[in-house]
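User: Can you model how calcium ion sits in this protein?
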Amino acid sequence: MKNREVARILYEVASLLELEDVPFKPRAYQRAARSVEACSTPVEELAEGDRLRELPDVGKAIGEKIQEIVRTGSLRYHQELKAKLPVDLFELTRVQGVGAKTAKQLYEALGVRNLLDLERAAKEGRIREVPGMGAKTERRILKGLAEARGTDRRELLWYAMTAMELLRRALEDSGLFAQLSAAGSLRRGVETVGDLDLLGVSERPEKASRFFACLPEVEEVLMQGPKRTSVKLAGGLQVDLRIVPASSYGAALQYFTGSKAHNIRLRERAGARGMKLNEYALTDAEDRVVAGKDEEGVYRELGLLWIPPELREDQGEIQAAERHELPQLVERSEIVGDLHVHTDWSDGTADLESMTEAARVEGLAYIAVTDHFRFSTTVGGVNTDELLRQVDAIGELNESSAGVRVLAGIEANIQRNGDLDVPARVLRRLDIVIASVHSHFRLSSAEMTRRLERVMDNELVDVLGHPTGRLIGERPPYDADWDEVFYRAAKTGTALEVNANPQRLDLGAPLVRRALEAGARLMLGSDAHATDHIRFLEIGVRTARRGWAEAKHVLNTLPVDALLATRKRGGRE
Ligand code: DGT
Ligand code: CA
Ligand code: CA
Ligand code: ZN
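Assistant: Here's the modeled complex, given as structure tokens:
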């Protein structure tokens, strides 16, 4: 264990004690943490030689705690304290403007547990609603978040979409725009977005662009004019608004949607046909406008079907459009169930009934409750008894409520050797089993591949959860031979998850495409830990579409009985 990780636990203990108003101790832990962090010798080495006391600010009591951490990988005292406040205090309090007290308040009011939750709450304007906080606190936190991760970070798709929605609604409500659309990477559904691109048509471009620059979300105006306005939002995200004549709207939308690689191919194609394509129009050899007011026209005049933005990456989509062989991409409305949902039986914030109700509001016909199975290093999670009680509770819920059907499931942990931590007799009682890697991330590619193959050989495993384990901008995928894994998934009939959590989107689009080529099937899961997370499904769908997925490739486009019949162990017993 690295000094930094030991220090992190000590820092958290300090914050938790501080919240409990324990005198003196918090500072003691803080100093010890700093001392561990600053020490160039690995604490493991010091602990081994019984030399921890050599560390400045580490006394007998804390020395023993460090021993425990080094020996067992965790600290019981820390876990006990954390049970009362299961949030990532270390991460949260690193954000300027968030102390332990604020973190606690945010957890109690909004269920904020980690940076992702904090970011979401801030960007969705929910922090200002918390009693005693207000818009100023929210702004400060947004600024702190932007600083905490440097200015050049790309925005996760979900937040970019949230910001775009706010802007678009405001602009539409102004009545100043005859047409308006998102363009750029956001329109293509890319998992991270560098800046937002908006395209509009207006009869009063001067007024429209001034209106845009004066929106309350805008923190800084970088450039303003009737054709182009660039601003920065409070969260640091840049937005470009371009206003074009109606006759050029389609050509401009095509151009500013990109991708650049797709546009280059398209321009080449125009050239080869004696035409010219730019952001104003498609013109013929005599400079006559052939198309420009809508996108369909541009593609049509180039001899192509209209290409969905998600495919515009120069990955064969132009050839497919030419041969009328574009995929029938899966749509959000075709997703009838969410197969990855957590409740407060494990680390979710909402109870079974609330999650079910949220699914109903989202128009779903069924959900699978797949809480975490308890294992030593995570807080929360159901054990065998609780899981069986949950199965009964789900049975009762299904009896009493017509409407959303609830499947009993689990998100089991894949152990290092590819076994699950849940006994098979318990798994047999469940409708659906997701198996996920939550530990031992750093195996060799060969060992990880074998591990995943072995778990998919298990006939009780229906889905491999967030298959690569990546966290966008934070943790790379673990090493494995993915084509081997996909091949085994296809062979064993194990579905691969497209986890729709904004920071996961795992499998990502390129791997989705390879998985489909190997013949594997997908499962879309929101991995919801709160009621409004079910809406993440939207970006799961966007990711699947970018991987050329059709409805027939996605399990949860099936009605529930057909879905259950696809399992290796067959339909309902
Ligand atoms: P981003 O913002 O980094 O997530 O990615 P995009 O794709 O939104 O890129 P952005 O905002 O720089 O430009 C928007 C679109 O405008 C881009 O997808 C294609 C088009 N575009 C921008 N610059 C060029 C260029 O130099 N050549 C061509 N062909 N297209 C461009
Ligand atoms: Ca952009
Ligand atoms: Ca841009
Ligand atoms: Zn999960």
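A couple of observations from the model: The first helix runs from residue 3 to 19. The two ends are 46 Å apart (CA to CA).
User: Helpful, thanks.
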